[in-house]
Amino acid sequence: MYDVETVRADFPILSREVNGKPLVYLDNGASAQKPQVVIDAVTNAYSHEYANVHRGLHTLSNIATEKYEGVRGIIARFLNAADEREVVLNTGTTQGINTVAYGWAMPRLEPGDEIILSVMEHHANIVPWHFLRERQGVVIRWVDVDEKGDLDPQAVLDAIGPRTKLIAVTHLSNVLGTVVDVKAICAGARERGVPVLVDGSQGAVHMPVDVQEIGCDFYAITGHKLYGPSGSGAIWIRRERMEEMRPFIGGGDMIREVHKDSVTYAEPPMKFEAGTPGIVQTIGLGVALNYMMGLGVANIAAHEARIAAYAKSRLEGLNWLHVQGRSEGKAAIFSFTLDGAAHPHDLSTILDKKGVAVRAGHHCAGPLMDHLGLTATCRASFGLYNTEAEVDVLVEALELAHDLFA
Questions:
Q1: Could you tell me where the DSSP H helices lie in 80-169?
Q2: Which pairing describes strands 218-222 and 196-199: parallel, antiparallel, or unpaired?
Q3: Is 186 found in the same domain as 101?
Q4: Are residues 217 and 156 in the same domain?
Q5: Where does the pLDDT of residue 205 fall: very low under 50, low under 70, confident under 90, or very high at 90 and above?
Q6: Could you tell me if 378 and 344 are in contact, meaning their C-beta atoms sit under 8 angstroms apart?
Q7: Which residues pair with 263 in a beta bridge?
Q8: What's residue 184's pLDDT?
Q9: pLDDT in tens, 61-99
Q10: Is residue 199 part of a domain?
Q11: 361 and 271: one domain?
Q12: What is the pLDDT of residues 246-273, one digit of tens each?
């Protein structure tokens, strides 16, 4: 049985107070807190085992290399990848998507070629494609969500034209909590010969992920949302796509030989991992993923589904609160605004006085905000350590804010 109080005891920051109130941390969509095992792993790596990886034959380098490289296999298990050599280690989803944009898309897309995006993409899965639009004349085709915030897979597939070269879509919206049927999108796209990149920044946090079952070509994750250190992450790349890619960052580690008039590159995935990496951050990510798998990713998802259902019922009772996104089976992510002139930034400040940490702003989702006719929302995003009691605290703080603004 999933014991959330036992889980909470693993996260030291959850015992602190903010403004004299117990911390209620509901900003997990931006970045999650870290369990003690991750903190200890990072401290131990810097205190007792630090050295550069891949390049030394001495004891510390061997230890660091073994632990760092071991994370590739952990990520492969976490995503159910067939081969750990399909895992490229990096700083997170942003670098992963840029690796695809520069290494795979840029060499093969010509002016007029198209990339399909949904309107609810995070900027990390928009801006790299805008670079190609600006610099190479690539066309971005947008697919809207419906009134509930759902993305119809058929609408995505219907947007495919003769010049469509890639679909790039989120697995789970960081604003609406909508879970996208990426498996259906990938199946239809594969029939049409169109590769699919999935932004798993939120999806991998809130549900089990099986890249083989999904059938995508690229799947990006970011460590700091997965209870690991910032500056860590990975992208899974289907082997055949790896073979089509060129490296876009050059330097040490990604080469086999360098001469005055020639260079030969290392085999993937090292071909895409230039320079000294985030050694300790990556080691910490491996520990975080093992922690999640130890709890059971399905157990985490079930716990969060209970929290989502309870939060939905409580928030629906506030008739002056407007929650964006009403998709069935949505994740425990709730973006909302209040009646009247209350700006989300003001609302966030008032909630903070009650110890409740939420996010206020556009959530790096400008096209979605435009689609919704909003400039900003408040967002409460729940994680594996949140409780129904914290939902109650959120609701009490919202009622106080409503009274103040009214």
A1: 93-100, 106-108, 127-136, 153-158
A2: parallel
A3: yes
A4: yes
A5: very high
A6: yes
A7: 258
A8: 98
A9: 999 999 999 999 999 999 999 999 999 999 999 999 999
A10: yes
A11: no
A12: 999 999 999 999 999 999 999 999 999 9
Per residue in 25-51, pLDDT tens? 999 999 999 999 999 999 999 999 999
Please check whether residues 114 and 145 belong to one and the same domain.
Answer: yes
Q: Do 253 and 310 belong to one domain?
A: no
Q: Please state, in angstroms and rounded to a whole number, the distance separating the CA atoms of residues 137 and 134.
A: 6
Do residues 226 and 328 both lie within one domain? no
φ, ψ dihedrals at 166, nearest 5°: -165, 145
CATH of the domain at 390: 3.90.1150.10
218-245 confidence digits (pLDDT tens): 999 999 999 999 999 999 999 999 999 9
155 pLDDT above the threshold of 80: yes
Range of the domain at 265: 40-294
Buried residues in 187-207 as b, exposed as e (16+ CB within 10 A): ebbeeeebbbbbbbbbbbbbb
Distances (CA, A) of 315 to 176, 307, 320, 334, 344: 14, 12, 10, 9, 16
| 364 is a catalytic site residue | yes
Q: Please report, for the domain that includes residue 69, its CATH number.
A: 3.40.640.10
In a domain, 35, yes or no: no
The mean pLDDT of 355-380, rounded to a whole number, is 97
Is the same domain home to 52 and 128? yes
Are 308 and 275 part of one and the same domain?
no
pLDDT at 341: 67
**Which CA distances in Å does 132 have to 19, 114, 139, 159?**
46, 10, 8, 19
Inter-residue long-range contacts of 109-113, CB under 8 Å, 24+ positions, other chains counted: 109/136, 109/138, 109/165, 109/166, 110/136, 110/137, 111/136, 111/137, 111/138, 112/137, 112/138, 112/139, 112/163, 113/138, 113/139, 113/163, 113/164, 113/165
pTM of this structure: 0.98
